[in-house]
Design a protein that fits this description.
single chain, alpha+beta, Ubiquitin-like (UB roll), three-stranded antiparallel β-sheet
């Protein structure tokens, strides 16, 4: 099993909050990445799953990773 980095983009639609998001997560499959995003955004913003709309899920190469913690974890220490 190899862990991959996925970028999940979507929208949060609450009565008092409408915003877009883009989140990078580590997962084995795209389905796991979506579940992780539902969990993290739901707990952080107090939204239910039906209020989160996932637009895209894409696998990233190591050069495309924007999150510095994930980049360091995957690519390793650059000297």
């Amino acid at each position: 099993m190899e862990l991959k980095i996925f970028r999940v983009t979507g929208e949060i639609r609450k009565p008092n909050l409408e915003t877009t998001f883009r989140k990078e997560v580590i997962a084995i499959k795209p389905e796991h990445a979506v579940e992780k995003v539902y969990s993290e955004i739901g707990s952080r913003h107090r939204v239910k799953r039906f209020q989160i709309k996932i637009n895209t899920v894409e696998e990233l190469s190591p050069q495309e990773i924007e999150n510095p913690l994930l980049r360091k974890l995957i690519v390793g220490e650059e000297k």
